[in-house]
Amino acid sequence: MDSAERQLDFGLIANFVHQVINPLNAVSGTLSNLIDGTIQGSRREQRLRAARAQLETTILLVRNLAYFSGISLDPTNVNPGHILQPCVVPKIILEAAQFFAEIGENKGITIRLTDRRTQFTVKGNPDLLRQVFMNLFDNGIKYGLKNSTLSIEPWVQRNTEVLLIRILGQSVGVSPGESAKLFDLGYRGDRARDQVSSGTGLGLYICRTIMESVFKGSIELEVGTSDKVSFLLRFPGPFL
């Protein structure tokens, strides 16, 4: 490992530790206040919900680091356990969205799946696909504008039989020329850093790795006008 790679690794670890410690400290403080009676009445449920959201965010961070650590040690093992089984896409999307219900509610952001009835099913690792959507929802909530909607639009392209899923939201936006870089390991956009100080630069890198290596598909960033930003996922057919 050269000095640049070592610096990147230590930088990611330091950033990761900082992001994990902060929400855990907040949860610990909330629990202490609940135990000693400082928080009472209707505020108890509100603070418990906030604590749960912080724990769920921390769990996602740990999942990302665990996956990244695994492929760093063995780049060929992008699919732990080599799990390949039917993945019911709407079910996995809704499961991933549940993790961000509380955080989204705090910002007035709603996650909406436009088609819940069509049971699109692809072959792959359901746990890793869930992680892809969790990373994208985390990104959409973290950098999304208040009182907006994060829309998930699935459809099959008839001429190619490719399943397309667009995740469209209103966010802080992306600077010109950054689209390709956002999927690089450790990279965070300029506007994202200005808006939110935290972030590991792992989430989108892991999304691309899983989509390309496990599902033989792709993910790209679409930059629209003004604050419209969307991610487009492609899953090659035929479907199960």
Outline the structure in words:
The protein has helices at 3-35, 42-73, 89-98, 101-107, 126-143, 190-195, 203-213; strands at 85-88, 110-113, 121-124, 149-157, 162-170, 218-223, 228-235. With 240 residues, the chain is α+β, with helices and mostly antiparallel strands. The chain folds into 2 domains: 3-73, Orthogonal Bundle (Helix Hairpins); 82-235, Heat Shock Protein 90 (2-Layer Sandwich). Strand 6 (218-223) and strand 7 form a beta hairpin.
Strand content: 15-25%
CATH level-two architecture of the largest domain? 2-Layer Sandwich
* Overall geometric form: globular
Number of domains: 2
Low-confidence stretches: 1-8
What level of helicity do the residues show?
40-55%
Output the radius of gyration: 19 Å
Instruction: Name the helix and strand elements from N-terminus to C-terminus, one letter apiece.
Output: HHEHHEEHEEHHEE
Reading off the top of the CATH hierarchy, the class of the largest domain is best stated as Alpha Beta
What CATH calls the topology of the largest domain is Heat Shock Protein 90
**How many individual β-strands?**
7
Give the mean pLDDT. 83
Q: What is the assigned CATH homologous superfamily of the largest domain?
A: Histidine kinase-like ATPase, C-terminal domain
Distance between the termini: 42 Å
Per DSSP, the total helix count is 7
